[in-house]
Amino acid sequence: MNVLITGGSRGIGRATALLAGSRGWNVGINYATNASAAESAIADVQKAGGKAIAIKGDVTNEKDVIQLFDAMENAFGPTNGVVINAGVTAQSMALADMTVERLRLVFDTNVLGAYLCAREAARRLPGASKEDCYSSIVLVSSAAARLGSPNEFVDYAGSKGAIDTLNVGLSKELGPKHVRVNAVRPGIIDTEIHASAGDPDRLGRLGKQTPLGRPGGADEVAEAIVWLLSPASSYVTGTNIDVTGGR
Asked: Which domain holds residue 91?
């Protein structure tokens, strides 16, 4: 299987790339700026048993998105799995305190970027697999879409609400073309996003509030993503899987 992962050099994207590599899959790891993280991820995918390439590109730039898919096809042939994972957040604060620059960054990356990648996948994935083994798009949403993230990230939450809607609509558009579309909604996951938002204690504080009493791991989210990519989920489309510890 040939899988392209946006934002694949760190966090959930990286964990997904490693798990895909352990299946012997070919992986395209998209990154925006951190080439060293992408190269490290490639090395780990290869150690796990897969093949990988790094593809630099800004998901908010239409030309870059097209080149992502071109590079993937040039390296491995037709792409039959796409994980739309690239996203950003910013410092925790109430909406009243957010600048328009911050709002544009979050919505351009998390909504426009996701839609551009999904559009390109919708153009290329039909016909990439046999009819009995559908191609698959997996969108990375967030439990924030359900919870709203008040006084923290209502912009991020809103952007992920758009991803949930994209999941519903695109799955209905592409199902007849033998492409499945699903989403995963992570909860409190142990990645660097919390520290980058200026609240390094958030992980432990909110993790304890889940029914399971702990934060989740990026590898646990990756398990759900890879299942949705695989033929094991062949009759699943338009579905959101919550990986939230019950929250």
From this structure: 2-243
